[in-house]
Structure prediction request, 147 residues.
Amino acid sequence: MSQSITASNVAVPFTTPLLQDSNYIVSASWPSPGTSTTTPSMNFPNLCWPTVGKFVIQLSTTAINGTSGSQNYTASLQDSADNVTFTNVAAFASNLLTTQDSSGTASAASVQVELTPTAKQYLRAALGSAPQNTLAPTGSVTLTALF
Prediction:
């Protein structure tokens, strides 16, 4: 597997270098109405203090097309100690990322957070389901670690 690290110039409230490593970028498509999905998990084997404060987690979505009816599309950040049992990261809102459709498209959105010292080894994003009465959305969510 090739390794690549690229710089990001996204303005954020952190004074942290924003480098991306291709091993710490995962994504998933928005699920069909009435279903939910998750991104693959990212493994941080040495995730403990002081490592936690040394990088930023970014959760972002592309624009979501094929939406209808002013519905909210949400994603949360989850962690796990065993890569099996995931729960929402308690320090953040259950819906860390929210975007709402308007006239058939939900806008692209992004949020960046620093993990708390109690973060667990495995991280993933959980995507909420589109309501049953909506169209099949197209778009994706990406979870990225920025160093």
Notes: The chain has a mean pLDDT of 79.
